[in-house]
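Page 47, continued from p. 46.
Same chain as before, 155 aa.
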Amino acid sequence: MCRWLQRKSDEIQAAAAILGVVVGFIGFGATWWQLRSANNSLQASNTYTIQHDAREIAAEVLGRGLVQKLKQGTLSADERDKAKNDFWTMLNFYLSVFRQLKAGGINDNIGAAFGQDFCQLLSEKQLSDAFDEMLAEKKISQNYVIMRETWCAKN
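Result:
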């Protein structure tokens, strides 16, 4: 038996090396599949959370009606800061969605839908002016500008 192993040593080592490569490829494939499944699950979870948060923000912010008044230009002077704060809450939500999209945390279709909503929001002159005003007051950062340029340049 030992002589047979000595005579077949090269063949045995070659077979073991080939088997090692095959097992490595199978392991790599299984790992890739698991990572892809995990990424899809994460995106689904993030999408659910984003949609849930969107409904909560809409109920809270739009329920007060100040953003609607800002859009219509019918705010009293003392309501303007409150309206801009509500508008900032909306912008901040969109920025979090934008960041999730850029990080791969949500799929492109969901990101595009929120991008269209964001651009439609800023297509209103009063809201676009409020955006620019908040930028000048440094209440929002250049990250918001990058989001606007990225999403709205396509729409």
